Amino acid sequence: MAGPWFFTLLCGLLAATLVRATLNPAVVLNLGAEVIREKLTQALEDHSATAILQQLPLHRALREEPAGVLRSLVDAVLKNIIWLKVTSANIHQLQVQASANAQELVVKIPMDMVAGFNTPLIKTIVQLHLESEAQAFIRLQTGASGPTRLVLRGCATSPGGLRISLLHKVSFLVNPLANKVMKLLVPALPKLVKSQLCPVIELAFNDIYAELLEIIRAPVSLGPDRLEFDILSPAIEDNVIQFNLGARLLHSKGTVTVTKWFNNSVASLTMPTAHSAPFSLVVRQDVVNAAVAALLPAEELMVLLDYVLPELARELKSSIRAISEKAADQLGPTQIVKIVTQDTPELLLSQGSAKVAQQIVLDLFPTNEAHRPFFTLGIEASSEAQFYTKGDRLMLNLNELRSDRIQLMNWDINWFEPEILKNVTTEILVSILLPNENGKLRPGIPVLMVKALGFEAASCSLTKDALVITPASSQPGPPLSQ
C-alpha cells in the first residue's frame, strides 16, 4: 500500500506539470491597427474633436502666459492684436503602430489648422498654418481589485511634430509681429492640445473599448442554444490587440439552463502565422465541436421506406433475401427504417479540412405494426464537414457520408455479417439523415462581430485545432447536399 509520501510526491509532480503546461484560451480575437484606427476615428468624430480644435482659445492662452522672460513679449504682441483664433481645422488619418515598448501601441493623430489674427497695422487678416501631432499610448492596466484592461494614457504633442508658418506673405510692417505670434504659439499650442484635445481622445478610446466589450459579449445564436464569450485577459502583440476569451454554451432543457464552460485549457490552439488581416477570430476545436453538437442534437427519425425511397426499399429487400428468404417475404409496403443518432457528433479538424463523426443506431421493422425490429445495426459514420461563409454568417454543410464501421447489435432473423448491408444502409443514411442534418445547419451561425467591426462579409479557414474567421469580400458558398 502506498504511503502518504507517495501521494504527496504525486500531487507535487502533477502541480509542477500543470505549471509548466501552456494553457490556451478557448477563443482569441485579434484586432489589427486598421480596426483600432477606424473605430477611434469615428469616436473622435462623434466627440466633435475637429470642432474642439476650431475652438482652441489661442488668444486667451497667450494672455495667460506666466510671468517671466516672455511676459514682456506677450504684452507687446497683444497690444497689436484684436483677436487670434483658429479659423479651420482638420484631423488627418490616424496611425496606430507598435511602440518601442512591446506592451504598448502608439496612436498618432495628425492635426492641420489655419489660425488668423487681426491687427490694426493692416486691414486684412494674417493667416498662420499650424501643423501638429498628438500622440497617445494604448497600454495594459491592472487594477488592485479589477481585471486587466486596456487604457489610453500619456497623451501629448509629439516632439518635433509642431510646425507653424505663414500661409501668405505679409507686409514688411507686419512680418515682425507675425514672427512673434508664431514664437509664442510654439509653447502655447502643445499645452492647449494636452488640456483641450487629449481628454477627448481618452474619452473616445474609452467609448470604443466599451463598444468592443459589447461586441465580444454579444451572444451567438445556435438555435435554441447560445454561445457567449467573455474576456479572460487582453494583450498587445506587435501592432495587434489580442483578447483572450473564455466561452460558455448555454443549453436550455425545458425551464432549466445548462451551462458548459470553456476557459484556459491545455488543448492546443494554433494561431494564424501572420497578423495581416484587420481582425481574426480564432475558435478552439472543442468550442466549435460544442457549437456543431448544439445544432445537431441527438434525434430519432422514422421513415416508411417503401413510400419515400422505393428503389432503396427494393435494394434492401434483395440484400435481406440473401440472409433470410422468410424475412424478405415479410417486408411489407409499410416497412419502417428507424434512425437514431447517439449522443452528439464529434468534429475532427485537420489543416484545411474537417469531418464530423457520429454514432447511429438503425432499426428495420417489417411493417408499421411490428413491435420488434428484424435487426439493429450500430453504425459509426463520418461526413466531410465543409465550412464556408455567406455574408456575415458561418455556414456548415455535411457531404459524402460514409459508414466507417458497422456492427450487428441485435437480430430477430438469422445471424449475418453486417457488412452485407453496409452499402444499402449507407445509401439510406445519405438519403435520409444527411439532408435532415443539412436542413438544420442551413440557417448558419451569425457572426455579429463581423459587421460590428465594420466589415460586410467574413471568410473562414481551418487549422489543425481551430476555426479562424477573418473579414473578406462576399462570395457565394457551395451548394448544400440533398
TrEMBL record:
**Source organism, top-level taxon:** Eukaryota
A GO BP entry: negative regulation of toll-like receptor 4 signaling pathway
Q: What UniProt keywords apply to this chain's record, in alphabetical order?
A: Signal
Q: Which SMART domains match?
A: BPI1
Q: Where is the Lipid-binding serum glycoprotein N-terminal domain?
A: 36-254
Give the range the annotation lists for the signal sequence.
Answer: 1-21
What Gene Ontology cellular component terms go with this record? extracellular exosome
Coiled-coil segments, which residues? none
Q: Does the keyword NAD apply?
A: no
List GO molecular-function terms, semicolon-separated: lipid binding
| Protein name according to UniProt | BPI fold containing family B member 1
